[in-house]
Structures are given as C-alpha cells and as structure tokens.
C-alpha cells in the first residue's frame, strides 16, 4: 500500500454492490442464521417448548456428550468414516479429473463429463436404494459373480461398513472430480512439457508439479466431502443397517425418533465445533502445500 | 554440444501435411533460425526435435544418435517456451534447479551450478522470488537459465521473445546471442519475426506450408532469395514479372529490366528489387549510366520514420516501395512524377 484510501472510499465501493449482495444475505439470514440461532437456543433447553411442557435453561445436553463415552466413540467412528470416504474420493476422483482435464478433448470429454455429474441429477434416496439391490446377498453382484465363477461365493455386502463407504463415495465423488477438474484444467500444458524437457519422468511431473498446483482443488473437494460425510445419516441408515450407527444417525434419532430436539441440537453443535477444529488444525499444513 | 540432423522428415495431421520431406543440418554450436509464417510447420519441427511429437517419416539425430525411440525426458535438450512456462509453485532458484534435482545432482553442486546460471543471465539476488513477482524480461532470463543449467546438447527456443515489448526485445536479442556464444550450445530458434531471425541467426531456414523453401546464412538469403516467397517474407521486395530473354526480362508494358544473371529463355519469370536499392530522381535530372535499370513512376505516399523515408509509388497501376535515408535533402512531394533507378547488380532473378 503506497497511499491510504481516502475516507469513505470503501463505503462508496460498497453502496453500488448492495443491490447485488442483499438478496443473498437476506436469504442466508432467513434460511440459515435464524433457524441456526433457534437450534442454539434449543440446545440449552431441558425440553421442547410445547404447550403442556415446562422447560428451563440447562447445560445438561452438552454434559450428556461427556457423561457416556458412546457419543465420543461414535464421533470418532464418523470422523474415521469421513477420512476414509475422502481418501477414496481422492484416489478415484483425481485420476478421473486428470484424464478429463488433460487427456480427453472435445466430444469424448463432454460425454465422460456428463457421466460424472449424472449422479447429481438423480434423487439421493433412489441412488442409495439402487445400491441396496446391488449389494445384498442374492443381489446383482452376488448373482453375476456366481454365474461366472465355477465355485460358489457369497457376496453380501449389505448392512456393513463397506456398504456405507461404497454408498457415500458414490454420492460425493462428483465433488472431488469437479473441484480437481477445475484446478487441473487451469494448469498450462506447457508447464508439463517444460518439466519433461528438463528430464522429469511422468511420475515426477505428477508429484512435483501437478499435485502441488492442483492442491487448492483437492483441498476444496476434501472439505466439501469430509464435512457432510461426518454428519451423514441416510447412507449409514439404509446401507449400514445395524452396523450403520454413526454420529449422524444418532443426531437424526434425537430429532425423528426419540423426539429429544435439545440433545440432538447439542450433539450437532459439538460436531460443528469438532469439524471446525479439525479444519483449523489442518489449515496450516494445507496452506504450506499450496 | 552436438549437431542436430533432420533427414526427410514428414508429419501428417489427418490428411494435412504439417511437414513434408524436410532435411536440415543444424551445425554444432550454431544459432539456427527457423523462420516462417504461422502454419508453416516450424513449431512442429521444433517439437519433434524436442521429442514432444514424432515424425511419420524420416529420421532425427542429435549428436549423431538417432532419437526416434527417445521420449523427451530422455533426450538432453533445453527448451524455452513462448510463455516461459515457469513453475508458479516454485521460487526462481527451485525453477532453475528443477532439471538438476530430477537428475539427482548433489545439493552442493546444484547450488553452484544454479548460481553460475543465474550470474550468466544476470539475475543475481532474485533466487527467492516467485515467478509472478518478476517482470517479463526477468522471467525470460529465468526460463533461459533453467534450460541451460542442465548442460543440454541442444537449446530449443520457441518464439521466446514474442511476449516482450519492442524495446526489451532488442535488448534480449543481444543478451540471448551473448549467452549462446558464451555457452557455445547448438541453438534452434523458431520465429515468425524476420528481423529477429536476421539479427540473431548464423543460418536461417525459411519454411512454407511444411516445406523448406530456402536455407543459408542471413545475408546470403537476403541478397539472393531463391523464390518470390523468400524475397517477400525475408525483408521487403518489389517484384516485376515478365518474359525472359537472356538476362533481360521484358515487362508487359515493353520495358526491359536487366538482371544480374541469366534465366532460361522464353519462360515467364520474375525479378526482385529491394526497396533500399532503389534511388529516386526527379524526372528532370541527369540520365543515368547504362548499368542501371530505370522506370518512370509517381509518388503516391510519403511515410516519414525519422532516420528514413518510405515512398510508395505507382507504376502501371502497381504499388512499388522505395526507402531513402534522411540525408537532409528536400524530400519528394506526394504526387510528384519521378524516375526510379537501380543497379543491374541489385536486380535478382527469381525462378
């Protein structure tokens, strides 16, 4: 900064932008801030403020998290699920994005791209139930394998941890492909050619040039996947069955089954705090990478 | 260092021939300019020497060794790209050291060699900067240092100066030439800028539509262009067409122009005259000696450029061009009827 801006310069910049900003912020206020505030309030109540119930303010809902180690264990399990799903999405999504951005051209790129974003067009519930048809014993995978293989196998992945992983990776993979595709496409081909002209093998080019330059996309994709997966409940419930108890399903239970909104709200905010803490801890490491 | 030979190389993209049967010897330690309009195949040829692309026919050898089976990372080349292609995630030092570190050169030797390269391109003290913190000229120098620090057998330059503004470009031309001479590396330089090719190259090859049109030292090509394309692409030229009779060309209006060499008689042919070889005299002036060609013309435009004046002239409905040094004499006015004179020695017959 060589010269300080004249007083009010920022103000005069903001004013013409207001009509553009206002609708978005008004909507965010109504749709997120107000309900979220109400949830914060709920999380400190003893009971729902319904007609015939008495309620008081309490910290008990937060204390409940620490009183039994069940919630802590489930939270760790959900964090592990988030990490695993994110890892698989990176391993599957990054090569796919690389091929889309750097290998394919023209019409074939469009076609493959369409296939990647196709899951976005279908209903999430339908996707999960269609996986159930595939994964269950006597299902599509089971029957197909038994039709080909000379010996009898039993592939019953339904209601297991792998089934939850498969369902979640399927649901969230497009985010990783899209964010990586955008950053990979922005890498000039001549950079890769320059590295190769300097004697770098394809693997070295990937490690020292492409991955560092694509890091913003990888991080954006990882955050977009990790955060919702940690709190996910639909895939664990439908595909996980009895082994599908995660932190997210417990929160859902509080709202839908047990009807203990205050506890559900408190557990949600603990999750939010933990996720923010994880991201804050990871930030310096990630920033050095980019 | 090494010589590079390209022998009978062709490259097709679908049915389009980007290069057709091109053979060039790039001498060891020389500075060779590949000149041509866009689409002439000069970049295709450079990329095949680099190993980014492979010929459909013919052979390429670097230092006597056939490189058909060698991918780019196994050839010992250095390349400077049009947009420099500096790695944005690395400092200037790491950019230059990249080629050494992927080859496993020890840390201390890497530091010494990078330092030497940085000194050579006069960038000392900027090692910690990121590419985006450098000016265009500085980026150019980093790209050059990065390409030569690995001691490649051949240095390939793909229009390296085209992204610089005019004044910087002239300075970098001299710099590039100095560095090339100091390192003594075989250099192949692609450009569409004829002035750049003339000032920098030891030899020039003119490419047109995938074929080698003419090749030789700059002065030789400039003074003896073999074709109309070579004459007009490398420098300015006035072209006259007519029927050949010995070393005379009869123009359509009956004028006879004497050429310095004979052409096959009876055929239609052309001759070229460089604008700076043409002298303009007012029609009333004294008659010239016999060893001169002369034409009457009318000045249609006078373009003043400080040290010189360009005249556009009308002769028989055709536009001719003549350059005159600004020697302080009164310039000719637009619309004036004049006579053009030039030596027979300056009349170049074209096949």
UniProtKB/TrEMBL annotation, chain A:
SUPFAM superfamilies: MetI-like (SSF161098). Pfam families: BPD_transp_1. InterPro entries: MetI-like (IPR000515), MetI-like_sf (IPR035906). It is a multi-pass membrane protein. Its main location: membrane. The keyword Acetylation does not apply. The chain crosses the membrane at residues 20-45, 85-104, 111-134, 159-184, 205-227, 263-286. It is found in: Cell membrane. Residues 75-282 form the ABC transmembrane type-1 domain. Keywords: Cell membrane, Membrane, Transmembrane, Transmembrane helix, Transport. GO terms for cellular component: plasma membrane. GO terms for biological process: transmembrane transport. Belongs to the binding-protein-dependent transport system permease family. CysTW subfamily. PANTHER family: INNER MEMBRANE ABC TRANSPORTER PERMEASE PROTEIN YDCU-RELATED, INNER MEMBRANE ABC TRANSPORTER PERMEASE PROTEIN YDCU-RELATED-RELATED. This is ABC transporter permease. It comes from Pelagibius litoralis. The lineage of its organism: Bacteria, Pseudomonadati, Pseudomonadota, Alphaproteobacteria, Rhodospirillales.
From TrEMBL, chain B:
GO terms for cellular component: ATP-binding cassette (ABC) transporter complex. Its EC number is 7.6.2.11. GO terms for molecular function: ABC-type polyamine transporter activity; ATP binding; ATP hydrolysis activity. It comes from the Bacteria. InterPro entries: AAA+_ATPase, ABC_SmlMolc_Importer, ABC_transporter-like_ATP-bd, ABC_transporter-like_CS, Mo/tungstate-bd_C_term_dom, P-loop_NTPase, PotA-like, Transp-assoc_OB_typ2. Residues 4-234 form the ABC transporter domain. It catalyses: ATP + H2O + polyamine-[polyamine-binding protein]Side 1 = ADP + phosphate + polyamineSide 2 + [polyamine-binding protein]Side 1. This is Spermidine/putrescine import ATP-binding protein PotA. The gene is potA.
